User: Which sequence fits this backbone?
DNA sequence: TTAATATTTGACGTTGACGTCAATGTCATT
DNA sequence: AATGACATTGACGTCAACGTCAAATATTAA
C-alpha cells in the first residue's frame, strides 16, 4: 500500500504544525506532494520520514532552515551523481565534485563532534549539581 | 589581582557582542558589574567565565534565554541552600526543595541524553553519506 | 444534499534575540 | 583642555520561523 495522508495526519505523526509543513514546502525543503482533484495535499510515508529526519537535524544540530537546505542539497548531489549525471558530464569534474562533497561532510562532522564534546561538559556540570544536592539531603538526614 | 575589564574586552574574550552582553544584564541573566564613577561597566573574570558557560549551555542545549534563567535559578537555589537559608527556614521544606531540584536536574539530564542519541543518529547518517561518496570515487578510479 | 469539519491561499501579526543608530557622556593621551 | 576612541541609554529596526485569521473550497458523514 502506502496510504495517502492529509496534512493533519502528517502534523500528528511528525509533531510539526500544519503551518510549518506548508512553510517547508514553500521554502523548497519538503518536496511537494501530490494533490487531490480539489487541491488537497496528499502525502505519503516518505514525506513523514523526511520531515522527521530534517526536524531532528534542525533541533539537534541547531541548523537554521537555510543550513538545512544546503545540507539537503548535498544528499541530492550524491543522488544525482549515481544516476544520469554519471554518464553525462566530464568524469574529471565529477571527481572534483565528489571530493568537495566529502570536504563539506568532514566539516559538518567536525562541528558535530565539537558539539558532542560541549554537551558532555554541560552534562558533567549538571551531574555535579545533582551530586551536591544529594549530599545536602544526606547531610540533613544525619543531623 | 583580578583586572577590571571594559565591555569591549569582555566581548572579545567571550565572542558575544556588546549588545548581547548588555542585553543579558538587562534580562537579569548576567549579574550587574560594578560601574566606574562615570557609569562605565567594569567586569571581572568571573563575568567572562559566567558568560562562556551560559552561552555554551544555550548553544549546546538549544536553551532559550528564558530557559537559561530558569536553569540559572537552580544553581542559585543550591547556593542559597548552603548559606543563610540553611539555618532560617523549616528543614522539612528545605528537603522538599532539594528533592524538587534533583527532579528538575534529572529531567534536564534526560533531555541531554536524548539529544546525544539523536546527534549520533545524524552523525551516523553523515558518515554513511561520506562512505558513499568515497565509494563513488573509488569506482571512478578503477574504470 | 446538507451539515459539519478540514484544507488552501494570502496576508498580516508576533516573538525572541539581538542589530543599529543617534545623542550624549566618559576615558586616556597628549 | 582638547582630541579621538570607546561607553551608555533609548528607541527603533530586523530577521527567521512560524502563528493567526479570513474567505473561499473540499471532503466526509449523516
Assistant:
Amino acid at each position: 500500500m502506502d496510504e495517502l495522508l492529509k496534512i493533519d495526519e502528517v502534523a500528528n505523526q511528525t509533531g510539526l504544525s500544519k503551518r510549518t509543513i506548508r512553510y517547508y514546502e514553500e521554502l523548497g525543503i519538503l518536496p511537494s506532494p501530490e494533490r487531490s482533484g480539489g487541491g488537497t495535499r496528499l502525502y505519503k510515508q516518505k514525506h513523514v520520514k523526511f520531515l522527521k529526519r530534517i526536524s531532528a537535524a534542525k533541533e539537534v544540530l541547531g541548523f537554521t532552515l537555510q543550513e538545512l537546505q544546503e545540507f539537503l542539497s548535498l544528499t541530492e548531489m550524491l543522488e544525482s551523481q549515481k544516476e544520469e549525471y554519471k554518464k553525462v558530464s566530464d568524469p574529471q569534474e565529477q571527481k572534483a565534485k565528489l571530493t568537495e562533497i566529502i570536504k563539506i561532510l568532514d566539516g559538518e562532522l567536525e562541528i558535530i563532534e565539537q558539539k558532542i564534546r560541549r554537551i558532555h561538559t554541560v552534562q558533567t556540570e549538571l551531574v555535579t549539581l545533582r551530586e551536591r544536592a544529594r549530599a545536602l539531603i544526606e547531610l540533613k538526614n544525619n543531623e
Remarks:
- The helical segments of chain B are 7-14, 18-26, 45-61, 65-82, 85-88, 91-141.
- Residues 6-8, 18, 22, 38-41 of chain B lie near DNA strand D (CB under 10 Å from a C1').
- Chain B touches chain A at residues 53, 56-57, 59-62, 74-75, 78, 81-82, 91, 94-95, 98-99, 101-102, 105-106, 108-109, 112-113, 115-116, 118-119, 121-123, 125-127, 129-130, 132-134, 136-137, 140 (CB under 8 Å).
- Residues 10 and 122 of chain B are 35 Å apart (CA to CA).
